[in-house]
Amino acid sequence: MTDTAQELDLPQVATQTTPGEGHAYLHERGASLEPSHPLARGPVASPPHSVDAFVKEFLRELNYGQGVPLSRSSLNDQYLALARTVRGYLTARWLETARKRRSHTERAVGYLSAEYLLGRQLDNALLATDLTQIAEDALHACGIELDALRQVEVEPGLGNGGLGRLAACFIDSMATMGAPCIGYGLRYEYGIFKQTFVDGRQIEIPDNWLSMGDPWEIAHPEMEVPVHFGGHTERYVDEAGRDRVKWIHGWDVLGIRYNYMVPGYQNGVVNTLRLWRARATRAFDLDIFNAGDYAQAVRSQTFAENISKVLYPEDSTPQGKELRLQQQYFFVACSLYDFIKHTQPTDFDVRDLPERIIFQLNDTHPVIAIPELMRLLVDDYGLEWEDAWGITRQCFAYTCHTLLPEALEVWPVSLMERLLPRHMEIIYRINEGFLDEVREAYPGDELRVRRMSIIGDHPERSVRMAHLATVASVKVNGVAELHSQLLRDKVLNDFAELWPDKFTNVTNGVTPRRFVRQANPYLSKLITDTIGVGWVANLDRLEELEVYAEDEDFREKFRAVKAANKERITRVLQRRDGIALPEGHLLDVMVKRLHEYKRQSLKLLHIVTLYDGIISGRLDPASVTPRTVVFGAKAAPGYRMAKETIYLINSAATVINADPRVEGRLFMAFPANYNVTLAERLIPAADLSEQISLAGKEASGTGNMKFALNGALTIGTDDGANVEIRRLVGDDNFFLFGMDEPQVAELQARGYRPADYYETNENLRSAINLIASGHFTGGDRDAAGLFVGDLLSNDAFLALADYQSYMDAQARVEAYYADQEAWTKSAILNVARSGYFSSDRSMRDYIDRIWHVKTGV
């Protein structure tokens, strides 16, 4: 027997295992440790029915997978073994789901998204397989606490914000509903940067989330996909005498696929998220290496792997723009090839493609898939143009996630012609045919033709990806009622006039599995104790809670839940960031991407106004409700104004938190590197949800939904999904302020002068002057100069115009919070009336209005 074998927790050495290491536990119960590792005998057919069985599987993974005995294992060893144990139970369901799908020819959804902000996977997998308690008991028997292993897990760095979080919610819901779906995206080696603060300023650190391995991914290097770039095209005549085009590639990379399992909630269905990593076709040149040029020897590898290296590389340079386009084309080229070549039978007829797949374009990032499918059908499969175009126009649907013109991607024609010359030719031809349709529908209206063209001329000749997506898709949807209306009326109004039936709305939603059941166990238990089981997969049942808003005992339990969540976030922030939150405060939370239209600047002005009022004597400290404001936000690395806003928030927090004149009344916290894991702790604790974007700028939002579902009241404008939240929860349970979208448009049309508001509002003027004086920046006036100067001379998102309305609404918040019974009743009604915002409902809408796929397959 080898020394290694003697160390492991194997059957033949069970008597050598020290008590309390798992083996003794099993032998006390007469459990066998016969070889039963999933890798040796195939996937586990069903979840273990005992703690004993789980302990066996866990120890097998620790011994065989990690190569260590329990007594010498690290926390990371234990986490990886646990994750692979749970993955083993998921794998059986995954393979069975795939087998059933292969036996049917039902239409599937191919969800194309550049982001999937998944969050930690362990708890979600345990919840989906109903293994949480068994795993906890099994680990405890081995002397391990599940909570300790939870802390080891690193959140996958595959997304940035709402777009990626939404995609993760959607694939969760599709699995829970049994809808056939493959999610496609990029396996970024470095995700969105880790944020830290140095002297209050954001510093970006690479997010090497894969450094300790990822036990949830399954690599398939043998299923590589060739992807081509550059070169030129040549005309030729094929054997049938038809004029054809050949793309002579300039260079190639390989796409390596990695599968993640996406489990449905306790229904036996496991769908697939398929991510792609770029690899060089020739990664290493031995001749060059032997000649001594070591860097040149691996140049092709480095160049190729840059494509999947970083999520959203900085694109302010020509090189950055080119890399972004490479990323987008790479992942859709891999995905289309994979679906047609690897998931369909060898005798599959591509003319049947619309019966097998609908590709959902999650924003404009994957829109290059449209000319890529045309290239495959025409060049590789030899279809005539008209036939290929007819197929393509049935295979795509497009979700637009923005109202900001700068967020609607355009690519310079010069870049497209250099990087993807064949695709540029295809786009030109698509545009020619489309403009013929426009001229036929609107004779003589060349101005309209120019507006609608896929190719724009100013400021440079460019491809308008939103136009291309709209032309080729069966449906175009916005993500909230107001957003979809503005999409039809303003952003894509010419297209909506031409094809009114093409446009629809699907309001976003969030998965109740992660953002209620998993994130808020205290509230989940209260809900289950009150209305019974079943609501996690049918969130409409939350309506049953409404009658309990009048129940004094239930309100007391609800307040206890909120208090427990506040205690939990206090512990988390103390351990994670060294932030000590005060007790007994209204917890006021604003967490979202840092962007001027989201108006973190307005929130800062509110805090400074309260602070200034107290220290100047205009406000009696006793009249101010004790309030803790928590921010969470990352600014894009090249977004200077966003970074200046972060600096000023941190600077204000340093001064305010140290000022004894406001102690016990005001406190600010800005934990660095806000992510899904922190959101799952912070959102359930919040009393007030800040959703204060300028009306007409936020597409939907999903954070607003998460807060309402967890019992926070919203203060917000009539923007995005706030409109639907307010309508559903009721005006009395929502703090509305600010201009609506028509009023915003009217003010901007007649000419907005922010200085007018500064000059006529004493509190606003005093707050801005305090910032400008350097009070929060160590006396350095210049440090706040950009922020203040932009507010007073530009203020593109009308923060000063909405300031007084916002202050008035915050005064209503304070008055209402003083009546805890009334506040609790409103919080309960927010939960009870927010079931509509389940991503399961969003998926039903997509299925009914756009995809027309079967569920339960």
UniProtKB/TrEMBL annotation:
Transmembrane segments: none annotated. InterPro entries: Glycg_phsphrylas, Glyco_trans_35, Pyridoxal_P_attach_site. The keyword Transferase applies. It is an enzyme of class 2 (transferase). Pfam families: Phosphorylase. It catalyses: [(1->4)-alpha-D-glucosyl](n) + phosphate = [(1->4)-alpha-D-glucosyl](n-1) + alpha-D-glucose 1-phosphate. Keywords: Carbohydrate metabolism, Glycosyltransferase, Pyridoxal phosphate, Transferase. It comes from the Bacteria. Its EC number is 2.4.1.1. Residues 1-22 are annotated as: Disordered. Its cofactor is pyridoxal 5'-phosphate. PANTHER family: GLYCOGEN PHOSPHORYLASE, GLYCOGEN PHOSPHORYLASE, LIVER FORM. Belongs to the glycogen phosphorylase family. Phosphorylase is an important allosteric enzyme in carbohydrate metabolism. Enzymes from different sources differ in their regulatory mechanisms and in their natural substrates. However, all known phosphorylases share catalytic and structural properties. This is Alpha-1,4 glucan phosphorylase. It comes from Nostocoides vanveenii.
